[in-house]
Amino acid sequence: MNKILLLLVIAGIGAFFGLQYMQDQKELRYFEGLAAKRSDGATYVEQLLKARQDLKDGNKDNDFAAYANIGVNLNILGEKKEALKWYEKAFLIDSESLLVLNNMADIYSDLGQYDK
Prior knowledge:
The protein has helices at about 1-35, 40-55, 65-75, 80-95, 100-110. It is mainly α and about 120 residues long.
């Protein structure tokens, strides 16, 4: 019985990390695919990838800037709904950031969601 439980735990851990890896790769492909949206898109994708790395470095002090930078670059690339998700993550860290509040308000306006 203990061997079966151990195998189930190992399989569960493997599935968890496998799913995380697949989601990470999906996000990476999504970001990289945005370069074709504009003639200068590669520049913005480079900034997205740098901010993405900042989120993975284990340093929580740079997470706000990384979330905001991802939001800014996605917004520039026309990915407004996706940018909003990243601004919301930055907002949870600093709910008084004028940059984040202004950019979120602009996106809500662009999306016709005036009540927000």
